[in-house]
Each structure stands twice: as C-alpha cells, then as structure tokens.
Design goal:
Length: about 650
C-alpha cells in the first residue's frame, strides 16, 4: 500500500477506536464462523496483529481489496493468488489462502481452488461481510493530519488527497476531449438514429413544455457556487443573460406577472454576461478512505433552471410505457430485482462505469438533443461551461456536467441507454424498431451508472461504451458466474448476499452525537440482517454511553434497539394516552434564515403548476395554507442543520 495512504491514519497510539472496531470484527467473525461450522480463531489473530501494525488502513483498504478479489474469484470460478497479494499463500500456487480459509473451503475446493458445484451461500455472505464491512468507513477526525478543506463546518479530505483528486479530474477532461475527437461520423449517425428511436416522443413533449412556458423550477437543498443560504436563493438579484431566452426571469423570479411586480424585478435585477458568469465549484467529498468523490457546486440561477427541466424530463419519462421501465430516475428496486434474476439465470449482466458523470461530454448531449432546438438550447443555456478547480484555476469544460447538476443524472442515463442499444443493434446486425425495443423490457435498465443488459450482447455493448469514451469498471461488472451487483444490492445464485457496512468509527462518548446516531443505526442494521450476536455486542457497547437505551419500533424518534419482539414503554401520554418511553432523541434544527417579501411569496407558490399568475385569490389562499401546514417555520429557518445533538426525554417508542 502506498505510504501516502497510510499517512494520517490511526496507529498504535490511537488504540481507542481501533480496538473497538477490531472487537466488533472479532464478534462478527465468531458469529459467522458458528453459522458456517468453522473456526475464526486464527483469522481473528491475523486481523488483530495486522491492525496493530497497519492501523485503520488494514480494515478499510487491505481487507476490502481482499473482498473485491473474492468477488472476482466467484466471477472467474477459481482462486487466483495474485489477486490477494497482501495475504500470503505460502509456497502454494493453487488452493486457498490461510486467511478465512475455513469460510473459503465451503465455496472453493481446498486443493485446487476451483469453485464448488454448490458453494455455501452462507459462506459467500460471510466472506463478503468480514472483508467489506469497513470498506466505506469515514476517516475519523482525530486521524486527520495536515491542512484540511472545509464545506461549512465539516472537514472533508486532506489537502494532499484533494490535490490528487483534482489532478485526476483534469486528466479526465483531457480524456473526454480525446474520446470526442476519435469518434467518426458513422458512429454519430448510429447514435443519433437510436436516440431518435428512443426519445423522439419524450423530447417533443419537453420541447413543448419549454415553448409553452410550462416549466416549474425549484431550488435544491444543497450548497450553491455563489454561497447563498437556503432561503436567500428565493431573492435572486442576478440572472445569466443567456438564460433569458428559455427561462425568462419575469416568470421564474416573481410570483405574479402583473406589471408592477415585473417592473420592480427589472429595476433590481443584474443580468450577467457570459464572460462574467460564476463557474461551478469543483470539490472533493469523502467516498472511501482510499478515494474521494468529485462533485460540482452549481450557481443558484443555473441550478434553479436545471431543476425545472429535470421535472419535465422525469415526468415525461415516467409516462412512457417503454422508457419508464428502462431508465430509473428515483426507484432502484427494479435494478435490484433484475440483478437477482441475473444471478439466478445467468442471462443478465450488471455493468458499472468509472467516473460515469464526468465522461458524458457536451458532444454526446449535442447529438442526443440536437434535433429539438428549444430543448437543446434550454439545456445548453443552463449548463455551466466553466469550472473552478482547486489548484488549477478556471477551466473550460468538455464534459456536459459533473455530479451536482440537476440534469446530470437523467441526461447521463439517456446517453448510456442510447449507447447500449447502439451495441445491441450492432450485435443483431439489423436496425432496431420500436416494437423490437419491447423485447428488451425486463432485460435492459439504467439507473445512473448502474447498467443491466443481456449477457449475449455484453461484449458488443462494452465495446461501444468504451468506443464512446466511457470506462467500464471490470472489478464491479459481472456477466459470468452467478454473482451480480446493482444499486447497492449483491446476489449470488438468486440469494441476497448484501452486507452491512460500518460507516463511522464507534463513538467514545455520548457527546459525539453523530457517532452515537450512526452506531445505533448500525446496531439495528446488524439485527435486521440476522447478525444478532453482533447486535448484542453493540447493545453492550452503547449502554455504556447511553443511560437509557429502550427497545423501540422502526418509526420511533428515540435512539433505541429495534426488535421483532415488540417495544417497551414506561408510561402513557396524559393527553393522547399513547405509550411513552424514556430515551435519547435527535435535535437538529435548521439554521435561522428569515425570508419575507416577494421571495417568501415566491417560495410559497412555486410548487403550484396549475396557475402561474395566481389571479384566483382562492387558489392563492389555499396554497398558502397547504405550505404552512407542512412546515410553519420554513420562512424563518431553512437549510441543512449545522449542529446535531441528542437529548434525553419522553417520546413514543412506536
């Protein structure tokens, strides 16, 4: 492992969190060993010794690499020693490594390392749980060294890791430009024909929404490049000039288009020329201990316009009888169900793309939307064309958009589906028709960069994805064997082998509110996954921190132990006679962010798509009442809480 990854991680001097994580792993290992009729004594000693010398990096990186190697062995059908180089095999060229050998022997032949005809599903789940459970743990604050980046009050990643991530972002930009230049005219002809077949009806409807001024915008909950607070977004004083043609500020920034309102807006509004526009802010946020995630923070006006187009895309996609079953925008369950079917039948492959969002180029989107002038113009008008990259200044973007743009997710899914059917059409050696698409219902689906396709066309599809500049992550893509993975669920031969992940180090004191909340959630996930001894270990651990730790239901506001055997309470509410239990509950209040005047009225009314002018006072009054009944403090407080705490009190256990 590179020394740079080890630097800044806990060593022997910070034994508190490491000791608790090692004990947690040991408890889980013993429990799973009993279920698999083997012993984990030697494995526990190995982990204890290596954590002592290598720190958290062993649990989060080395052990996780072993888990990924195990998945490749399932895919290939045999064990390859060089996939797990950091775990000795001794002098053997075949067979199983000593680490977790008792579990592996129920999956692979002990002498040859070949996959058994009927491997133990329990053992497969156990190896995955024991190797991958810490793979996405957040770096604890006490282990951070050197300068840090800040988003609000939250420490994110070290400056060195951030610089490396930004360098990779810039490199990706070069590769996107190179991939665009390699594509030939016949590639784009095929792409455009398939895109027309798939999306003409939908794009015509979205195009019509733009022309007929039916778009309804909204503000997202996240940060913006111009640093406005959540409620301040509703009093926008600037508007990019190139937005005006498709997103008139007179319709987007005032609640009523009467002349007095419009004139007041025009007097205070500052129109920004293209050269003076705010670029997206590119930042890195934690993903795993080894690799941060790159996202882009959009300017407020651009995000506001993008959200209006997102609504239109989403609504019209859901109305289409074919595409609603091939593109997922909000529901991941169909992908998961298809992955399970693929693991059982072997007929469906699951693909995963690396840096998927950042490899969708502007040229891809130009060809996707080019036949619809209003739609193409609107999408490009609300696309931010420059990015402020830490250590590199402002750069022009060849990519369409990074994660953070409201249009990134639906547009990338439509581009990927187009390329998939280009590959399928080439494999079939015949032009596709709308009727032929119906044969792929339940066999092709895209949710972001999680892709499911028929195995018989996988090589052609992978070739076309690579041809159009995308990168298939071969370590997370599966089409041979019986292992499949999609949208956070993993299956082997139709059985769910998904695991519980530890997201944070265990808290050392009750004042670590976020740590306590995460530990309670981890305990309940372990319980519901059937790891009851591990859940009991966490019960003991949490009782040392929490004076009251009641048994509660899944919908209770209290931090407690969920159980299939019911819940407990000590008294009843004198007003409702409902049960009450004593325990800790979460206090997370949105920051003070008062909003009044025209911005407040716009916020209250922006969700009404029926009548944008609100000439009917009855509609105005009823809509205001509806909003107030949902959140009566939304004009005083708004945004994500800056501080989270827990407080002792009486609350319903159900």
């Amino acid at each position: 492992m590179p020394s740079g990854l080890r630097r800044g991680l806990p060593s022997r001097r910070s034994e508190g969190p490491l000791k608790s994580l090692t004990s947690l792993w040991s408890c889980t290992a013993n429990e799973l060993a009993v279920r698999c009729r083997t012993s984990a004594v030697r494995d526990i000693k190995t982990v204890t010794d290596r954590v002592e010398h290598e720190g958290l990096s062993f649990l989060a990186i080395t052990l996780a690499s072993y888990g990924k190697a195990f998945e490749r062995w399932l895919e290939r059908g045999f064990v390859e020693p060089w996939d797990a180089a950091e775990f000795r095999f001794g002098s053997r060229l075949t067979g199983l490594p000593p680490f977790l050998e008792g579990f592996l022997a129920r999956v692979f032949d002990a002498a040859s390392g070949v996959l058994l005809d009927k491997p133990s599903i329990e053992a497969i789940y156990s190896v995955r749980q024991l190797t991958l459970m810490f793979g996405k743990i957040a770096l604890p604050d006490e282990a951070r060294k050197g300068p840090v980046s800040l988003i609000g009050n939250r420490k994110v990643v070290s400056e060195k890791r951030e610089r490396r991530a930004m360098k990779e972002y810039i490199q990706c930009e070069y590769e996107v430009r190179s991939a665009d230049s390699r594509l030939m005219s016949h590639d784009w002809e095929l792409f455009n024909r398939v895109a027309s077949l798939l999306y003409d009806e939908i794009f015509l409807k979205v195009d019509s929404d733009i022309v007929l001024e039916k778009l309804v915008p909204k503000h997202g909950p996240g940060a913006v490049a111009d640093y406005l607070s959540s409620n301040a977004k509703w009093n926008l004083q600037t508007w990019p000039d190139r937005l005006r043609q498709y997103f008139p500020p007179e319709q987007f920034l005032v609640a009523n288009e009467r002349p007095v309102w419009v004139n007041r807006l025009r007097m205070k509004l500052d129109l920004i020329e293209p050269g003076a526009e705010i670029p997206v802010r590119v930042i890195s946020v934690p993903k795993t201990l080894k690799t941060p995630r790159i996202i882009a923070i959009e300017p407020t006006a651009m995000q506001f316009a993008q959200q209006s187009l997102f609504r239109s895309f989403r609504d019209h996609l859901e109305e289409d009888s074919i595409l609603s079953k091939m593109i997922g925008i909000q529901d991941q369950d169909p992908n998961r169900s298809m992955a399970r079917v693929g693991s059982l039948s072997g007929e469906l492959a699951t693909l995963d793309l690396s840096e998927a969002s950042d490899r969708v180029s502007k040229q891809h989107v130009d060809n996707l939307l080019g036949r619809y002038s209003a739609l193409h113009g609107a999408v490009m008008a609300c696309r931010t064309s420059k990015a402020a990259v830490f250590g590199h200044g402002e750069i022009p973007l060849a990519k369409f958009a990074s994660m953070g743009s409201a249009l990134c997710f639906p547009v990338e899914a439509m581009v990927f589906l187009t390329v998939i059917f280009v590959g399928i059409q080439k494999e079939l050696s015949t032009p596709l028709s709308r009727d032929m698409l119906k044969a792929y219902l339940g066999r092709v689906r895209v949710f972001g960069d999680d892709i499911i396709i028929p195995v018989e066309q996988v090589h052609s599809v992978v070739h076309e994805l690579e041809n159009f500049g995308f990168r298939v992550n071969v370590h997370k893509s599966f089409w041979t064997g019986r292992f499949r993975e999609s949208c956070g669920r993993e299956y082997y031969d139709g059985e769910d082998v998904s695991i519980v992940r530890v997201r944070r180090t265990l808290p050392a004191q009750r004042q670590d509110a976020i740590g306590v909340i995460a530990a309670c959630a981890l305990r309940n996930q372990m319980y519901h996954s059937g790891l009851w001894q591990t859940a009991r270990w966490l019960d003991t651990y949490l009782r040392k921190l929490l004076t009251y730790f009641p048994t509660v239901g899944p919908d209770s506001p209290l931090l407690g132990r969920e159980s299939y055997l019911g819940c407990e309470f000590q008294t009843t509410d004198p007003n409702t006679y409902g049960p009450l239990a004593r325990g800790y509950y979460i206090r997370a209040q949105s920051p003070s962010d008062p909003l009044d005047g025209e911005g407040a009225l716009l916020k209250c009314l922006i969700g009404n798509p029926v009548d944008r002018s609100f000439k009917d006072e009855r509609i105005l009054k009823s809509h205001l009442l509806d909003v107030a009944s949902v959140d009566d403090e939304h004009l005083e407080r708004s945004g994500r809480p800056k501080h989270v705490s827990i407080k002792l009190g009486w609350r319903p256990p159900l």
